Amino acid sequence: MPEWVLYGVGVLCLIGAFFVLVAAIGVLKLDDLYMRMHAASKAGTLGSGVLLIALAIFSRETDVVLRALAAFVFLLLTAPISAHLLARAAYTVGYRPCSLTKHDALAERLAANGQDSGSTPS
Fold first, then answer.
1. Which of these, 74, 55, 75, lies nearest to 64 by C-alpha position?
2. Disulfide engineering: 59 pairs with which of 44, 64, 95, 115, CB 3.0-4.6 Å?
């Protein structure tokens, strides 16, 4: 394997690790459930995906490359959808965004449809 490929894989690993670290810090430091979920789903998916691509480039075995690419596609397809559904369910049962949230589009949409937006849990 050429030396430049190893350096490229190393750079991809560093980029992926950086995004995973940003996701972890976001989960720990952000203010409410929705911000934390956003950090975990976006930065975590990107970081994991870049690490899987680095694995696919480093490995020269076809089955490992196919599994890494399949896992990357699976992450891209499932993480944003599951985060959206979890956030919608949390909102439906009454968890409201923190005071830093400037625009609550879902509350406006539910009000326009005449639906109750739920109550705040105690």
1. 55
2. 64
Number of domains composing the chain: 1
Q: What is the pLDDT of residue 109?
A: 84
* Within-domain flag for 86: yes
Domain membership of residue 107 (yes or no) is no
* Structural domain boundaries enclosing 17: 8-96
CA dist 50 and 13 (Å) reads 7
What value does the mean pLDDT take over residues 63-84? Answer: 93
Determine the Cα–Cα distance for residues 80 and 86; give it in Å rounded to an integer.
10
- pLDDT cut 90: percent of the chain above it: 62
* 73 is a domain residue: yes
Please give the average per-residue pLDDT across 22-28, as a whole number.
94
Indicate the length of the chain as a whole number: 122
SS3 60: coil
Asked if pLDDT for residue 74 goes beyond 90, the answer is yes
